[in-house]
């Protein structure tokens, strides 16, 4: 037997199921006690497995409550992000408003600057005129220069008007300057406010980014924990399935063995009664022919009695007429179907082929490769109509897989015990299959998605 380490699959080696489960054949007196020992072993193992199932259930519950906690955290983060986004929106609007205000102020300042420049020009012109007139308004000069008093009044009025206008212009200029200064301070304050708002906004954005990163990490962790819990759950379910199937099977085997023993007892009693009757008749005949010269030696007891016919126990046959089924071999596994080996185990285009393909036309029966218990009988998108059987041979667990079976042809269900060579269905083309064939896998240990326990079936079929 090929030795292989089985560490990848939790189910491997859990089930202690002696090869004497194959109870058909020689009927030894120790058979029943062997079966009972095995049942005790299964009961102990079930108790251990149930204990670890309980532990794993607790673990799953704990993980689920942690998951709920994380989901609440994620919801809170999402609310915070929404709130922060609202704040950012508000700040952006305020910044836009302030910028518009600054633009308006800048325009006003420009306008004022232009006015002041114009008034500067005007004042300079007045200053030039006053300088040309001698630096001050001389009323005598104005009077003496007048052609008439009327002319003087006109001249005087013009001078005072000019002076008054100068004063007004200067006052107005001063007010404009004050306004400009005021506006400048306002603009500077607005700019400072704007900078503060920008800073606040940047801080908010940084906080938001950090929260987003935190959320992403929480979601990632949540997803990993969830997947881990689901994987464990699947393993537990598989364990439970195999254990209950094997428990049912061993109980059936004990029942069958008890029935066989009872039948044997009845046959033995009948044979003993027949032997006793024959002995009595013989004794009677011997007494009657005592006078005869030719005396036969006495048979004495049941020594000369005809032996009780040893009845061969026949297996419960639910295989039906298996026309075309290959002959059942005496090796570890028998060939599961007749036909040609169309594709072997090993690398092939597009990946690795973990099984052996056997192809044939027409209605081709598929048989169990060895005694065992059906652990799955189902339809899957890849395997199509498929049956998984677990076997216990010489202290080692094996799993065989029969894929792409004909639709509606599966004759055995999960938990059912099957015999080597028993028909379990017929060859088909279901699932990911192109042309009628049987895809047959052997795993040393349990089956797993990675198919890490798969071996070349050709080396096991004999
Ligand atoms: Zn295949």
Describe what this molecule looks like in 3D:
The protein contains three helices and twelve strands, in the order H-H-H-E-E-E-E-E-E-E-E-E-E-E-E. The protein is α+β, with helices and mostly antiparallel strands. The protein has two domains: 20-290 and 299-314; 315-462, Distorted Sandwich (Glucose Permease (Domain IIA)). Strands 1, 4, 6, 7, 8, 9, 11 and 12 form an eight-stranded antiparallel β-sheet that branches. The longest helix has 140 residues, at 149-288. The two termini are 13 Å apart. Bound molecules: zinc ion (ZN). Zinc ion binds at residues 343, 353, 355, 357, 439.
Number of helices: 3
Radius of gyration: 53 Å
Shape: rod-shaped
Roughly how many Å apart are the termini? Answer: 13 Å
Question: Can you give the helix content as a percent range?
Answer: 40-55%
> How many domains in all?
2
The average pLDDT value, as a whole number, equals 75
Poorly predicted segments: 1-29, 295-323
Please name the defining characteristics of this protein.
alpha+beta; Glucose Permease (Domain IIA); 2 domains; 3 helices; 13% strand; rod-shaped; binds zinc ion
Q: Could you give the topology of this structure?
A:
Layout lengths: L30 H102 L6 H6 L4 H140 L51 E4 L2 E3 L2 E3 L2 E4 L5 E3 L4 E9 L3 E10 L2 E10 L11 E2 L4 E4 L11 E7 L9 E2 L7
Antiparallel strand pairs: 1-4, 2-3, 4-11, 5-10, 6-7, 6-9, 7-8, 8-11, 11-12
Helix pairs in contact: 1-3
Summary of the model, kept short:
The chain has 462 residues and is of the alpha+beta class.
């Amino acid at each position: 037997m090929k030795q292989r380490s089985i560490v990848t699959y939790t189910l491997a080696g859990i089930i202690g199921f002696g090869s004497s489960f194959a109870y058909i054949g020689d009927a030894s007196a120790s058979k029943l006690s062997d079966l009972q020992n095995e049942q005790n072993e299964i009961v102990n193992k079930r108790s251990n497995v149930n204990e670890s199932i309980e532990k794993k259930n607790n673990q799953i519950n704990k993980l689920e409550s942690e998951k709920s906690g994380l989901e609440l955290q994620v919801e809170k983060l999402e609310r915070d992000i929404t709130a922060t986004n609202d704040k950012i929106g508000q700040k952006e609007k305020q910044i836009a408003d302030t910028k518009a205000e600054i633009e308006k102020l800048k325009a006003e300042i420009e306008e004022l600057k232009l006015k002041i420049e114009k008034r500067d020009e005007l004042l300079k012109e007045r200053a030039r005129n006053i300088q040309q007139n001698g630096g001050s308004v001389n009323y005598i000069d104005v009077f003496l220069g007048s052609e008439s008093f009327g002319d003087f009044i006109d001249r005087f009025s013009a001078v005072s008007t000019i002076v008054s206008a100068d004063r007004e212009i200067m006052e107005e200029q001063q007010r404009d300057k004050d306004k400009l200064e005021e506006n400048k301070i306002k603009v500077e304050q607005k700019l400072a406010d704007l900078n503060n708002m920008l800073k606040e906004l940047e801080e908010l954005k940084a906080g938001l980014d950090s929260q987003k990163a935190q959320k992403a990490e929480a979601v990632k962790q949540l997803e990993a924990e969830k997947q881990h819990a689901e994987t464990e759950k699947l393993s537990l379910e598989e364990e439970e399935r195999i254990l209950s199937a094997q428990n049912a099977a061993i109980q059936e085997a004990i029942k069958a063995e008890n029935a066989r023993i009872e039948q044997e007892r009845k046959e033995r009693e009948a044979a003993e009664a027949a032997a006793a009757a024959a002995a009595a008749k013989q004794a009677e005949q011997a007494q009657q022919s005592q006078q005869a010269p030719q005396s036969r030696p006495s048979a004495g007891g049941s020594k000369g009695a005809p032996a009780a016919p040893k009845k061969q126990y026949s297996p419960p046959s639910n295989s039906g007429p298996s026309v075309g089924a290959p002959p059942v071999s005496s090796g570890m596994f028998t060939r599961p179907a007749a036909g040609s080996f169309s594709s072997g185990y090993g690398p092939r285009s597009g990946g690795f082929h973990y099984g052996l393909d056997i192809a044939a036309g027409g209605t081709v029966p598929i048989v169990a490769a060895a005694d065992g218990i059906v652990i799955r009988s189902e339809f899957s998108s890849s395997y199509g109509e498929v049956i998984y059987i677990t076997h216990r041979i010489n202290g080692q667990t094996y799993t065989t897989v029969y894929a792409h079976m004909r639709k509606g042809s599966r004759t055995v269900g999960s938990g059912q015990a099957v015999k080597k060579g028993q028909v379990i269905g017929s060859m088909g083309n279901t699932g990911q299959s192109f042309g009628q064939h049987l895809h047959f896998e052997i795993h040393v240990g349990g089956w797993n998605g990675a198919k890490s326990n798969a071996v070349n079936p050709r080396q096991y079929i004999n």
